[in-house]
Amino acid sequence: MRILSKKYIQRGGIYRIRNIVNKRIYIGASTNLFRRTRSHRNRLNANNHANKYLQKDWNRYGSKSFRVEIILECESNKGILNLYEDLCFNFYRSENKEFGYNIKYRHSKKMKTWLGLLRLGCKHTEDTKKIISALHKRNKYNIGRKLTDECKRKKSEKMKGRTFSDETKRKMSIARKRWWENRCT
């Protein structure tokens, strides 16, 4: 991995570290691109990088398999850098393990607002509504799922002969009463 030239001292922007073997990337933002990329290289060489996935591939493929590229030079303003970094995360999909190394992905408040405005006034197509409906039906509580007769029989047999302690019965009674009280109000 080549380090950026010193002309990037005191220059802010968005950078990416690209693995030329498997095409995965790491997206980052810094107010001092030179210092930040040098820090990445030093930590990777010392086998002490915070990102274990990037470190693992660095150890596997070696430093010559990585390139540092400047995506965007901009003001050294944290708010603007975070906004542009969020845009790059979305564009390059670097938080997806298939495409990138980024572990933590967070939207800035500005980005959340911007993404919300993009969807404002948009309506889902009928196909999209069917897909969303199907995804909601497949959940861990089996809501909307039809059980076969054999499955019902097995569940019934499993529950027969089951007994609860007096303490458990009391707790179940209290929970049921609370549920009814809250349901009716």
The coarse overall form would be elongated
What's the total helix number? 7
Radius of gyration: 26 Å
Question: Looking at CATH, which topology of the domain at 6-119 would you report?
Answer: GIY-YIG endonuclease
CATH superfamily of the domain at 6-119: GIY-YIG endonuclease
Instruction: Give me the strand/helix succession.
Output: EEHHEHHHHH
Q: How is the main sheet built?
A: 3 strands, antiparallel
Kindly describe this structure.
The protein has 185 residues and is an alpha+beta fold. It has a domain of 114 residues: GIY-YIG endonuclease, CATH 3.40.1440. Helix content is 49%, strand content 12%. The protein is built from seven helices and three strands, in the order E-E-H-H-E-H-H-H-H-H. The protein has a three-stranded antiparallel beta sheet with strand order 2-1-3, with helices on both faces. Strand 1 and strand 2 form a beta hairpin. The longest helix is centred in the C-terminal third of the chain and has 19 residues. It starts with 11 loop residues before the first strand and ends with a helix.
